[in-house]
């Protein structure tokens, strides 16, 4: 498997003419590349575009991110999910301030030692922001190269990723000087071009747009009419379904939120408390009384909801449990919030149905 100079230059030419206008592109700022790559993990581009601009306006540089209070950071990240990404962003920013005077290093080995930056992200920052000839292989690139070579290897297998990284590294070793004569920003354009080709043309879950592809003459899967079976992707394990009951405990003015444990799912975030089983109304009232030492006055069933995590599904039923006065509450790691305060507090999207019920 190899990429030729002709293929690479066709790709970069196509990218420069057809790339999407995205707020983190062509800014010349490594912070933008890093922030966008973290945001784009498990999150759609169209959603990230708006949130990137909002986040960037509030935290315009690494220094402001490093100094951001945790509660404010979680609120800025609200709705993005995978909150560990936000925590690692701050940890990484603090490390960059301490170790590199606030400037992300260009060396991918140094980048990989920073919190939350793995092989792909380090490669993307180094290649896109600094023009360092290193591979950055994400899901789009895996799909594009699998089809280019009509490779039946499982793209979920880490060895497949490593083999494609080697293909890109070999290309740089053999052709970089010639490529940069044709395009001085070749490495950045080539790296982004591979990703863009996968996002716009060589799409998953349906017919790739082969007639618009700059690599159509070279694509073995297309020539063999195998784009529907390449790439091969082994099946994921089915998500575990957890039946969960939520307690929306409130008095006339305030809601009760509880902080989740510091480690594990939704670590350190505030939630509407609950239990990992389905309860009827009387059981829910009894459980709330036992856990929080409150006396329920009224209980009302709220709409059911579901939330998907990577390997887990919460199937939730919720009850509004009214009490006379939350001031009598005896529980640790809890907040008592008015509707206005609740609207301003970062609450995981798993609970968006509850917030929507109260128009929050």
TrEMBL record:
Q: What's an example of a GO molecular-function annotation for this chain? A: metal ion binding
What are the recorded Gene Ontology BP terms? base-excision repair; mismatch repair
Q: What is its EC number?
A: 3.2.2.31
Protein's UniProt keywords contain Electron transport: no
The UniProt keyword set, sorted, is: 4Fe-4S, DNA damage, DNA repair, Glycosidase, Hydrolase, Iron, Iron-sulfur, Metal-binding
What the record notes about the co-factor is: Binds 1 [4Fe-4S] cluster.
SUPFAM superfamilies linked to this entry:
DNA-glycosylase, Nudix
What top-level branch of life does the organism fall under? Bacteria
Task: Please give the Pfam families that the UniProt record associates with this protein.
Answer: HhH-GPD (PF00730), NUDIX_4 (PF14815)
Q: Write the protein's name.
A: Adenine DNA glycosylase
Q: In which organism is this protein found? A: Stecheria intestinalis
